[in-house]
Structures are given as C-alpha cells and as structure tokens.
Design a protein that fits this description.
32% of the residues lie in helices and 18% in strands. It is built from seven helices and six strands, in the order E-H-H-E-H-E-H-H-H-E-H-E-E. The radius of gyration is 16 Å and the shape is globular.
C-alpha cells in the first residue's frame, strides 16, 4: 500500500465570491496567500514525493509551502465548462428544476462542455495506479471529492459521510491495483 496525502489549494478571490473556478486559472488572493503561509505540512509527510495541479492556485500553494512539486494534469480541477465564473446560487435560480435534476445525478452531474465527477475519477485511476512511493499532492476540491467518493463508495447524491474541510490534508492508502482507501480525512494543517 502506498500513502497518498492530498490537500486543496488555498483560497482565491473567486472562492471568496463563491464563483465556480474549474479549469479557469485563478491565482490565490492576498488573503489566501496569507492563510497558506500559516499552514504547516505534518512532519511525517514532509519527505513524500510532491505533485501539484498545473493551475496557478495549486502551484502557488505548493510554492508557499516550500514543496518541490512536479505538475501533473491528472489532478487538475474538474472542468465546469460553460458554468465557470458563475455561482451555484445563480445557476440554481436560473435553471430551476433542470439544475436540481442534474445535481441529483451525483457522480454523473455534468455541466455543459465540462466534466462529471465520474470523468474526474476516470482521469484519476491511471494516476493512482502509477503511484509507487509516498506522495503528497496539492489539488482541488473537486479532485478531493472525486477521490473520496472512489475510496468510500459515496455516490455524491447526498452529503458525504465525512465532511471534507478546507485547510486540511487527507490521507489515503493506494493498493497495487491503484484502488484508494480512506485512511484519515481532515488532518489539520497546523499554523506555524
């Protein structure tokens, strides 16, 4: 079994305004940079091989944490297609029952011209199978959710058994077939 620790990037202005980012390449906000500068990777994970999404918010998070992270598209955020830059509140008000029906599909929820969480899981599978050494990854909420769903059997039709918190890391065990198992969620990134 291989250890995988994954965390979400720090906050952006779009996060603060509750806008969907997806593949949009949004940098950390000044407040987000300040928050990440107070995070500390637990010492037992500091010597892990480091990877990050190529999106600037993940790259900046890794840099602030002084991680020498290689970039990989495998952990790029879920694409929200035409809905990037919009808020879920506005989309729900605009689309009404159609949005309700789409969200009720859980893993098969699909924004126009975007990806479903199941698509993200399919993108993650070969990457997970390739992990042969303890790895720390800086990614995105959609990636963490898709990974948690893959490991726990959560179908995303309702709330997860474990709430995925911000400013935390999540430890998974990956078997030699690339199957993830939840080891520990919501490990606080202690302030320095």
């Amino acid at each position: 079994m291989t250890d995988l620790v994954i965390l979400r990037h720090g906050p952006t202005a779009w996060n603060a305004n509750k806008l969907i980012q997806g593949h949009s390449d949004i940098a950390l906000s000044p407040e987000g940079r300040a928050e990440v500068s107070n995070w500390c990777i637990p010492s037992r994970f500091k010597n892990f091989h480091c990877l990050c999404s190529p999106l600037i918010r993940a790259v900046e998070t890794a840099e602030i944490l002084e991680l020498k992270a290689q970039q990989t598209d495998a952990i790029r955020e879920m694409s929200w297609g035409q809905w990037e830059g919009r808020s879920l509140v506005d989309l729900r008000a605009e689309l009404g029952p159609a949005m309700d029906d789409n969200e009720a599909q859980g893993l098969d929820f699909h924004p126009p011209d975007g990806e479903s969480p199941r698509d993200v899981q399919q993108r993650l599978r070969p990457w997970l199978a390739s992990l042969k050494e303890p790895t720390l990854a800086v990614a995105h909420k959609g990636v963490v959710r898709a990974l948690y769903a893959l490991a726990s059997g959560w179908d995303m039709r309702d709330k997860p058994e474990i709430r995925i918190e911000d400013a935390t890391a999540h430890l998974f065990k990956i078997d030699d077939q690339g199957r993830p198992f939840v080891e520990r969620m919501n490990i606080r990134l202690k302030e320095t």
